[in-house]
Each structure stands twice: as C-alpha cells, then as structure tokens.
Amino acid sequence: MEGHGLLVGAILLLCLTHTCYGVLFSSLQHSLVVTASPQQGQLLKAGEDKIEVTWQLNMTFPAGSDSAYKSVKVKLCYAPISQKDRAWRKTNDNLSKDKTCQFTMVAEAYNDAVQTFQWTIARDIPTATYFVRAYALDSQGTQVAYGQTTDGHKTTNLFDIQGISGRHVSLDIASACFSAFSLLALCGFFLAEKRRTKLSHNK
Ligand SMILES: *[C@@H]1O[C@H](CO)[C@@H](O)[C@H](O)[C@H]1NC(C)=O
Ligand SMILES: *[C@@H]1O[C@H](CO)[C@@H](O)[C@H](O)[C@H]1NC(C)=O
C-alpha cells in the first residue's frame, strides 16, 4: 500500500517537474557552446543558402554535468528586432509558452564530442533576423541546458534570412512590369506597322 503511494507520488513529481510543468528558460544550465557559420549581419537566402552549426559541452563544466543530457535540439530563433510588435514570436521565460525559437534545424542524440552539421535554410523560413540556440533535453524530452550563438541580451552575431515569399513578391512585380512593357511594345509595334501599311497604300 505504501509502495503504491510512493509510486503515485513519484509519477506526480515526474509530471510536475517534467511534462506538466513548463520549464523556465532562466533555470537552464548554460553549458553548451554553439557557433554558426553566418557572420554578424550577413544576409542568407531561404531555400538556397546553408548554415553550418557546431556545438559542444563547455569544457569548464565538471565531468558528468551532462549525465542527464539525452538529446539535443538545435533551433533557429528570432532576434528581438524581429519580435517587436509580433506577439506570435514573443519570448516567454516559461518554455512551454516561449515563441522565440520556432524552427528546428536538427534533433539528435546527445554526444559529448564536438558536433557539426549543415542545414540548408528551409523554404518556409520567413524574412527576419535570427540566431541559433541548442537545447539539451533529458530522457523525458524536457530542456535542461542550452547554448546559443548570441550573447544574453541577444545583440551579437545576429544574421538575416530573406524568405522566399519576399523574393516572389519582387519577382511578381518584375514580371508584371515586364508584361506591361511587352504589351506597350507590342501596341507600339502594331501601330507603327499599321501606319507603315497605310503609308505604303497611300503611295
Ligand atoms: C508554464 O506554462 C504552463 C502552460 O500555461 C503552465 O502549466 C506552467 O505552470 C508554467 N510553468 C511555470 C514554471 O510557470
Ligand atoms: C564556459 O563556461 C564558463 C563558465 O560559465 C564561461 O565563463 C565561459 O565563457 C564559457 N565558455 C564559452 C566558450 O562559452
């Protein structure tokens, strides 16, 4: 009977600390070191350009501090300038409500050696300013540690991505202008041709 209560208690505790309870970002261990290939202020194109990301455990952390890390999720995150006036990208310390990092670049098993991967920017990434953040997750899939390419205030090493829809709009405008120009040219040609025929008829 007692054992049963203990089990329920343990499940409840697990539930409270993991699944049911949103973890606070501010409570995570800042133990991962993450770097990404884009230079500060660089402009990359969605669907075309690649980002190379490297992450590893910060070696100044004592051995075994990563014993709970089971997997790593690397995400593309909105920089503050691209969150302004956009509630749907708002940062919340409660990670179950946080909308800073909406795009997963890679999810893989945790490994304490240096990890590197290349990611072609997905075609659905919108035009915005970004940084990269990696979360270490425990066996429950709960965030326990992180690392990011920018500083705590999210002001350094930010890069820009130009989304495909933005490019399509300018392409559409260009083709509309081209069509209008073609139509004008065609009309001009037609009129000139008509006048020429008229002239030759009058001769
Ligand atoms: C985080 O948000 C979830 C969902 O609203 C809530 O259930 C949880 O209690 C919150 N966690 C903290 C630590 O505030
Ligand atoms: C590693 O962690 C230490 C202690 O928190 C910190 O001072 C140092 O800047 C970190 N190193 C890197 C490369 O982030």
TrEMBL record:
Keywords: Cell membrane, Membrane, Nitrate assimilation, Signal, Transmembrane, Transmembrane helix
GO cellular component: plasma membrane
Transmembrane parts of this sequence: 173-192
Region forming the signal peptide: 1-22
InterPro entries: Transptr_NO3_Nar2
UniProt keyword Cell membrane present: yes
Any one Gene Ontology BP term: response to nitrate
Alphabetized PANTHER family for the sequence: HIGH-AFFINITY NITRATE TRANSPORTER 3.1, HIGH-AFFINITY NITRATE TRANSPORTER 3.2
Protein name: High-affinity nitrate transporter
